[in-house]
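Appendix C: a fully annotated inverse folding record. The material below is reproduced so that readers can follow the format used throughout the book. The structure is listed first as tokens, followed by the designed sequence.
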């Protein structure tokens, strides 16, 4: 980490997201196994991590004592319970980062007796392969500790700092967005099978094509529509297909889905 001190990270509630984060940091060599602690009740589910030298335990208090950075990855309704459990051993040097949807920093600060260094992070499951988009919110003060958290998540993808009021929107676009994109890829694969490819070949073509499209935008500065213009020949097959998709409500259904997800959170 940027301050040069060894940092030990405890992920409290290592389920799907918690394990994805651990895998991302470990596989990329960004956090050594000796500096990672994972907790959950059913510790047996964490044996692949234990086999790699990660400390696994069902004891949040012990994990908190041994760590400097605490990442809360339990379900939202468990956040208060876990904060109150670790409160007796919470120190000034602890940084608390919550990935839980919908739980405010103000509420967590109340439960943590006014602790300052509390942040929210909204990664997505691509964190497991070092390709997360992580939205971060919190007070820039707190002795630059948000910088530390940003550095940590930048090692497994890219970070965007946002204001906390956008956290629900970040959940929808970034975390639910993984599912939207996967459904798009699956539909593309199904279409590919219908026009002649076996399912594996259709999947490969769809996956790599979507990666290429995303990379064009991430590595360039062009707008998506400008890149679409390059592919659409007048009277050609691409524009005919695209327009048919729009007649069937393609963009509209995606936007409505995003708004529906957003309405469901708030
Ligand atoms: N999945 C995503 O894409 C995603 C993305 C961004 C944010 N999030 C947020 O991340 C959080 C976790 O989501 P998830 O999908 O990973 O859920 P999950 O798979 O259910 O993981 C939560 C884990 O917490 C453990 N747990 C429950 N009570 C605990 C306690 N008192 N102490 C320690 N561990 C405890 C559970 O394991 P045991 O039953 O063994 O204890 C469970 O494995 C949620 O708040 C969600 O809003 C998820």
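Designed amino acids, in order:
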């Amino acid at each position: 980490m940027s301050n040069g001190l060894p940092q030990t990270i405890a992920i409290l509630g290592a389920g799907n997201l918690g394990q994805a984060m651990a895998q991302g940091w470990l596989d990329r060599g960004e956090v050594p196994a000796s500096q990672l602690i994972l907790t959950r009740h059913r510790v047996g589910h964490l044996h692949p991590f234990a086999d790699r030298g990660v400390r696994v335990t069902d004891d949040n208090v012990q994990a908190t004592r041994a760590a400097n950075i605490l990442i809360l990855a339990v379900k939202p309704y468990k956040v208060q319970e876990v904060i109150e459990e670790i409160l007796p051993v919470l120190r000034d040097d602890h940084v608390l980062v919550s990935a839980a949807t919908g739980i405010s920093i103000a509420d967590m600060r109340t439960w943590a007796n006014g602790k300052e260094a509390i942040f929210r992070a909204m990664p997505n499951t691509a964190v497991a392969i070092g390709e997360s988009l992580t939205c971060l919110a919190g007070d820039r003060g707190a002795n630059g500790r948000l910088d530390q958290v940003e550095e940590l998540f930048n090692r497994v993808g890219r970070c965007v700092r946002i204001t906390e009021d956008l956290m629900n929107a970040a959940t929808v676009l970034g975390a639910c967005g993984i599912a939207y994109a996967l459904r798009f890829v699956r539909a593309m694969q199904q279409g590919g099978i219908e026009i002649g490819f076996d399912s594996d070949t259709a999947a490969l073509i769809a996956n790599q094509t979507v990666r290429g499209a995303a990379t064009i935008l991430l590595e360039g500065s062009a707008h998506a529509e400008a890149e679409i213009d390059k592919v659409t020949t007048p009277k050609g097959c691409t524009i005919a297909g695209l327009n048919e998709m729009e007649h069937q409500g393609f963009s509209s259904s995606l936007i409505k889905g995003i708004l529906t997800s957003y309405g469901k959170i708030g």
